[in-house]
Amino acid sequence: xxxxxxxxxxxxxxxxTMAATFLMGFIDAYTFLEKDGVFVSAQTGNMIAFSxxxxxxxxxxxxxxxxxxxxxxxxxxxxxxxxxxxxRHFLKKYQIFLLIQGSLxxxxxxxxxxxxxxLMIFLLGFLAGYELTIFRQIGMTTVNDGIMTGNTKNLxxxxxxxLFKKDETxxxxxxxxxxxxxxxxxxxxxxxxxxxxxxFFCLWFAFLLTIGLYFFxxxxxxxxxxxxxxxx
Length: 232
What we know:
With 232 residues, this protein is mostly helical. It is built from eight helices and two strands. Keywords: Membrane, Transmembrane, Transmembrane helix.
């Protein structure tokens, strides 16, 4: 993650990554069920669906998977650019990240009935790429909060190293990766249930979760400055 983080910063980033993992699963379920089988975070699945539809003559359906891929790529690129520009300001940068994310989700929620599906999945793909780039660490373990293939491979690698090499770091990585996969699955399950019961509420829930995280970071930021003032 660049410069060395303090223990409290690692803890905060871990909470944010766990929430982002749940959210990615939640939104993936929404787009898969409501937007013609499109995944916003799992680009391997999109490439499979795109290639299959393209080579079987389903050209219009294939286009949606390219749209989300382009959005995801752009979001990841911009996320990395912003991350590099704001390396030093830990809490402040995550406040800004969450504010941008919350603004996008509010826009989606307010206009979900009128936004063209292609634009919607492009923007949700952008959000997924952005979020997967920003929030990617639990403890000292690097995780991917929306793509479980790499997480599963790393999970088994760390399990092997713990069982046969008695590597304690591998044990911690195994626990963190297991938590990541579990949270993603819970997010997918929760998203699927909400889509069945009240699909209109899905994007509002994602917005409310993001705003809750924003106020959590804001409270920590305020507490940090109050502590600094008392020290002075």
